[in-house]
Amino acid sequence: MTYLVSYRPPTDDSGALALACQFARSEADTVHALTVVPRGWETSAGSATDGEFETWAAEEGEASASEALKLLADEPGITAEATWVTGRSVPAAIMEQAEELEATLIVVGSGTDGVEGRIAVSSKTDRLLHSSPVPVALAPRGYRPPAGSKINRVTLAFRDDDVTWKLLDDVADICKRVGAELRLLTVALKHRTMVTSAVRNDEDLVFAKLVEQVKGAQVEALEHLYKHDGVNASVDLARGTTWADALAGVDWTEGDVLVVGSSRTHKLANVFLGSGGAKIVRNSPVPVIVVP
User: Fold this and answer.
1) Could you tell me the residue range of the domain that residue 247 belongs to?
2) Where are the beta strands (DSSP E) in 162-287?
């Protein structure tokens, strides 16, 4: 299997490469770094402009691939390769290469414009999330896991719907295969309101009922996971008034990755984040895998 990583300096940091290496060490797979260089406009055959652009593209692509290989050489226990291609659309070129290489995962970074330690979804990444036929992993900006590390725990954003129940079995199988722990995480938000004490008491009761339902679904999921012999599973409930507040209160450790299923309301998209999923991605302090 191959993990395809989008990498082009100086707009990308090395976080995506590091994350892909963690995945590859966990499953003994290959990391393939890909640089997409913009393709020039069609010009008349043999024009000077066309030749200059092709020369520039080749130099940019070769330099980027060379740098990627240099960075990957410092990663222990990794089989790696790097190539470059030209394309009018970076997401389209990435997906084309993913199909050609039969990649099981596309890995992208957060660039240099996002907040350190958080995931920034650029317009190109957003297009990829809408169109990719395979899961997309996003690394927080400046992601720097310990050298030689693997994925130790997979946290599944659990919604108790058909999508996440199907995903539960798939993730459990992967955890069993790579020896990672599995944690089911549900986010329960309690919004602040400027209301009378009577209304607030009603809202407290509604929230308590929500928490009760969530815990019941999590217990059911744990019982379901008993059939996956060898999977170390646990549950957690993130509470807060905002997504950032709730996720900040969760215990995160080195080697954690968060898995989010695509929205159940957008059947035409391959990978599409609903409002809740998008907020989880943007507020997650650990890498996130978005699954179609």
Assistant:
1) 153-291
2) 181-189, 233-240, 256-261
